[in-house]
Design brief:
Elements: E1 2-3, E2 7-12, H1 18-26, E3 43-48, H2 49-55, H3 57-62, E4 71-76, E5 87-88, E6 91-92, E7 96-102, H4 109-120, E8 125-130, H5 146-150, H6 155-174, E9 179-181, E10 192-196, H7 205-219, E11 225-226, E12 231-241, E13 245-258, E14 262-265, E15 271-274, E16 277-281, E17 293-295, E18 298-300, E19 303-308, E20 320-324, H8 330-342, E21 353-357, H9 360-372, E22 377-382, H10 387-393, E23 400-404, H11 410-413, E24 421-425, H12 428-453, E25 458-469, E26 474-485, E27 490-493, E28 496-506, E29 509-510, E30 514-515, E31 519-524, E32 538-541, H13 545-553, H14 560-571
Parallel strand pairs: 2-4, 2-7, 7-8, 8-10, 9-10, 21-22, 21-23, 23-24
Antiparallel strand pairs: 1-11, 3-4, 5-6, 12-13, 12-20, 13-18, 13-19, 14-15, 14-20, 16-17, 16-19, 25-26, 25-32, 26-30, 26-31, 27-28, 27-32, 28-29, 28-31
Length: 572
C-alpha cells in the first residue's frame, strides 16, 4: 500500500488569521481578495514535501525528522462553517487539523465550536498561536523558525509572550486539553502542541510545516495508506466555469481518478456521469485561483481537484462521490454513495422542528446536535427556507425552523399571519443557544401571562380620614402593607368577600398596580363605607384554591412579600 499526503484542515475563529497564514505558506494572495476579509468558500492547496525538505532542512535536522510522505494538502475552511462540510462516512475528511488562535484574543466562540467539532470527529490537532508579531516590542525576523526568532527577542517581550501563551494553556485546560509549547512536549499523544506563528512575517511557519509533517508521518501512517483502485471524495463547491460549464471542486481523499472515469455522485437522486476534464491547481496555489490550473490525465489522493462532466446541475456541496474505472463497478459505487447519504437521513416525527443547511455535511452535524439535545425533527433538508417549509408547520404547537448558512426566501419571510419562528446563524452551535434563550423567554412570557390572569397576594390597611365617597362606588384610601394590588382583584375583610376593585388611583391618576409602601385610593361597587369597610380595617386580596395552586407553580416570579403572604394562607 502507498501513502498519500495527509489532509490538514485549518479552522478557528473569524479574523484570527487562518487564510493569512496559508497565504504565507503558499505565497499567494487569496486573503486580499476575500469579501470582508472572511473566507467565503473552502479552498485547498498542496505543499509538496520537496519544498519542506529544501526550505527547512536545518530545522528537520535539529528535530531529527526524516520525511517520506508526499506532502501536505491544506484545507482553508470558512470561519463561519468550520469543517462540518468536510465529511465522509465515519467522520471528517481531515486527517489532522490546525486550530488557529490569536495570541492576543485567546479562545473565542467559533474557536469553541471548532474544538467541539474536532472532539466530535476525533481529529488530532495542533494549535497555531497566531499574530505573535503584535506582541509589545516584538522584533520580527522574516520567515525564521520560532525557535530562532524567540531567542532574539528582548527579555520583556519574551515574558509578555510567555504570559499570553500560559493564559491560552489555561483556557484549553478548562476545556479538557493538556497543552504546551510544541518544543517542550515529549509525547504528542498526551499533549496538544502550541506552535507560535505570524502570518504577516512568516515566523513560526517552518515549525508548523515540519511539526505537521512529522506528526502525520509518525502517528497517521495507517490512516493515510491508500489504493489506486477507484477513488473516493467529497464535493466542496459546485460552480460554472467559462468554457467548461458546470464544474465541481472536490477533495479526493482516497484512491485515484483518471480522465474518462465514471463519476458517481450521491444525493436525492444518484448521478452517474463521465469525467470530461480533470484540473488541478499548481502546487502552492489555491483551488479557488481559477486561472492557475493544470489539465491532467490522472490524479492520486489526497488532492483538491476540479472536475468537468455532463449532468452536474443540481449537485449539492457535501455530497459523497465515487470514481469508478470500469463500468462493472458502478453498481457497488451507487450502493456506497446511497449508504453514505442514508447515514445522514433521520427518523422524522410528525411534530418536530425543520432543519435547513447549506451542505450535506452541515445538515448531518445539525441532525446529530438536535438529536443529542432530544429535540424532535420533522424534516431535515439541504437548501433555502421556503414558503412551503413555513406553511407546512404553521399549525404545529411550536412551529420552529433552524437555518444554518441557508438563506430565507422572501416568500417565506412574507408569509403573513403565520406564527413561525425562524432561527438563523452561521455558527452551528449558536442555533441551539438561540433556541434555549427563546425557550427561556417563552417560559417567562407564559409565567407573566399566568400571573396576569390570577389575583396575587396583597395586604392593605384602610387609612383613617380617607373615606372619600360612601358608596356607588365607594372610594377610600389604603396603604399597601405587602404584595401587589391591581384593578379587578377581589378583596376580603376578615375572610369575608367584599367585592372587586374597580380602579386604583395614585396621586390622582389611574395606575395598573400598587406595591408595598404605596398609598392609593380604591373604588369599588357594591361596598358601603362604614358598613362593609371601616377606617383602620386590614383588607386582603381574595385568592381561590385554584389561584393558590397556580401561584405555587410560578412561585419564582413572586416578590418576597408575596411569598410570605402565600405561606400564611397555606398555614391557615
Amino acid at each position: 500500500m502507498e501513502v498519500r499526503q495527509p489532509i490538514v484542515a485549518v479552522l478557528g475563529h473569524v479574523d484570527h488569521g487562518k487564510t493569512s497564514l496559508l497565504d504565507k505558506i503558499r505565497s499567494s494572495s487569496v486573503a486580499a481578495g476575500e469579501a470582508g476579509g472572511i473566507t467565503q468558500a473552502i479552498g485547498s492547496s498542496e505543499v509538496p514535501i520537496g519544498v519542506i525538505k529544501t526550505k527547512y532542512k536545518s530545522l528537520l535536522e535539529k528535530m531529527n525528522i526524516s520525511l517520506t510522505i508526499p506532502g501536505l494538502l491544506f484545507l482553508d475552511t470558512p470561519g463561519h462553517a468550520a469543517f462540518v462540510t468536510l465529511r465522509k462516512r465515519g467522520g471528517a475528511i481531515a486527517d489532522i487539523a490546525v486550530l488557529v488562535v490569536d495570541i492576543n484574543e485567546g479562545i473565542q466562540p467559533q474557536t469553541e465550536e471548532s474544538i467541539k467539532l474536532l472532539r466530535e470527529f476525533k481529529t488530532p490537532f495542533v494549535v497555531a498561536v497566531t499574530k505573535i508579531d503584535r506582541i509589545l516590542s516584538w522584533m520580527p525576523h522574516q520567515d525564521k523558525s520560532f525557535l530562532d526568532t524567540i531567542a532574539e527577542q528582548p527579555k520583556r517581550t519574551v515574558e509578555e509572550f510567555e504570559n499570553k501563551v500560559y493564559t491560552l494553556i489555561g483556557q484549553l485546560g478548562s476545556m479538557g486539553f493538556d497543552s504546551e509549547r510544541y518544543d517542550r512536549i515529549s509525547d504528542f499523544t498526551k499533549q496538544v502542541g502550541l506552535i507560535p506563528v505570524s502570518g504577516k512575517t512568516g515566523e513560526g511557519v517552518p515549525d508548523l510545516l515540519v511539526v505537521l509533517a512529522g506528526l502525520a508521518q509518525k502517528y497517521l501512517q495507517k490512516r493515510i495508506e491508500f489504493s489506486k483502485d477507484g477513488g473516493k471524495g467529497t464535493i466542496l463547491e459546485v460552480k460554472e466555469q467559462k468554457g467548461l460549464g458546470s464544474v465541481i471542486d472536490i477533495i479526493l481523499y482516497d484512491g485515484q481518478v483518471n480522465k474518462g472515469d465514471w463519476l458517481v455522485i450521491g444525493g436525492k437522486k444518484t448521478i452517474v456521469t463521465k469525467i470530461k476534464a480533470l484540473l488541478k491547481p499548481e502546487p502552492l496555489k489555491d483551488i479557488r485561483a481559477e486561472r492557475r490550473f493544470l489539465y491532467l490525465d490522472s490524479v492520486t489522493a489526497a488532492s483538491g481537484i476540479r472536475i468537468s462532466a455532463p449532468e452536474l446541475e443540481g449537485v449539492i456541496a457535501g455530497s459523497p462521490i465515487r470514481i469508478v474505472n470500469k463500468e462493472k463497478g458502478l453498481e457497488k459505487a451507487k450502493e456506497d454513495v446511497k449508504q453514505e447519504i442514508e447515514d445522514v437521513e433521520i427518523q422524522t416525527e410528525k411534530d418536530g422542528v425543520v432543519l435547513k443547511a447549506d451542505t450535506l455535511g452541515s445538515l448531518e452535524a445539525m441532525i446529530k446536535l438536535f438529536q443529542e439535545a432530544s429535540i424532535p425533527i420533522r424534516k431535515a433538508e439541504v437548501g433555502q427556507v421556503t414558503k412551503q417549509d413555513v406553511l407546512e408547520i404553521k399549525t404545529l404547537k411550536e412551529p420552529l425552523i433552524f437555518a444554518f448558512n441557508s438563506q430565507i426566501q422572501e416568500e417565506a419571510k412574507n408569509s403573513t399571519g403565520v406564527k413561525v419562528k425562524v432561527f438563523s446563524s452561521d455558527v452551528i452551535y449558536r442555533l441551539l443557544e438561540q433556541y434555549h434563550e427563546w425557550k427561556k423567554g417563552e417560559k417567562e412570557r407564559k409565567e407573566e401571562e399566568i400571573l396576569n390572569s390570577v389575583t396575587r397576594p396583597a395586604r392593605m390597611r384602610v387609612l383613617p380620614g380617607c373615606i372619600f365617597r360612601q358608596s356607588k362606588p365607594v372610594v377610600f384610601g389604603v396603604e399597601i402593607l405587602a404584595g401587589i394590588l391591581k384593578p379587578h382583584f377581589r378583596l376580603s375583610r376578615n375572610g369575608k368577600k367584599l367585592g372587586e376593585i374597580k380602579e386604583v388611583q395614585k396621586s390622582g391618576a389611574s395606575v395598573d398596580e400598587a406595591v408595598s409602601g404605596d398609598r392609593v385610593a380604591l373604588s369599588m361597587d357594591d361596598v358601603v363605607a362604614g358598613k362593609d369597610v371601616l377606617e383602620g380595617d386590614i383588607l386582603e386580596t381574595l385568592i381561590t384554591h385554584e389561584e393558590f395552586r397556580i401561584l405555587e407553580k410560578v412561585r419564582g416570579k413572586l416578590r418576597d412579600d408575596e411569598k410570605g403572604l402565600l405561606e400564611e394562607i397555606r398555614n391557615r
